[in-house]
Every structure is written in C-alpha cells, then in structure tokens.
Write a structure and sequence with these properties.
Layout: E1 3-7, E2 10-13, E3 18-25, E4 33-39, E5 46-52, E6 57-59, E7 67-72, E8 77-82, E9 91-98, E10 112-113, E11 117-122
Parallel strand pairs: 2-11
Antiparallel strand pairs: 1-3, 3-8, 4-5, 4-9, 5-6, 7-8, 9-10, 9-11
Length: 123
Amino acid sequence: QVQLVEAGGGSVQSGGSLRLSCVASGLTYSSYTLGWFRQAPGKEREGVAFIDSAGDTNYADSVKGRFTISQDNAKNTLYLQMNSLKPEDTAMYYCAADTVGYSSTYDEYYNYWGQGTQVTVSS
C-alpha cells in the first residue's frame, strides 16, 4: 500500500517561492510515475508536473520555467520547487502516484493520492 503525505504549502506574495514535499511510503514498484496536481476552487484538477522512475520530467505549459519537480530516492521524497509564483497558482496541491505504468498526465490514471496542501499566492 502506497501512502503519500504532502507538506510545504502556505501563503506567499506574487513573485515568491515555495517548495512542496511529498513523502512516499510503500512505493516499491520498479516502474512508476509521480505527479503534482492542483485544483483551484470551481476549477477542474489539473496536472502540473510529472517525473517517472527513469527521472524523465514533464510540465504543464503554465508552469514551465517556473516549477521544478525532483525526487530524492534515498528519502522517498518528491519535491516541487515553485518560483515566480503568480496569484493564478493558488490552489490545493496534491501529489499522486501511478503504479500501473500509464505514464499519463491525466488524474484518472493515478491510483494513489495524498491529502493535499494549500498554496495561496497574493498579488
């Protein structure tokens, strides 16, 4: 059983930075994809950044050049470094794991989810 626990959300002014972390326990699969998703009030959940077990990354156009996804395998931790934050980045952020191997950017292909951490960016 995979458990994902996020931390690092908070409130920041526009242009600021935050680093989210997600500790993944029970992730013993040789092939997987980890992703960060976000959901703002009244909007659908969207994929933000992804990294697979080979270390390949993928980003939504809206965050390219500002966000960086990484993982520390020794600590079983996934990170999302968020720089140059904008008010439109305000959302609940979730980490998720796809242990089946779909390598998708769509949330329906992810079978494990964390509880979420709130990010609020003020102008």
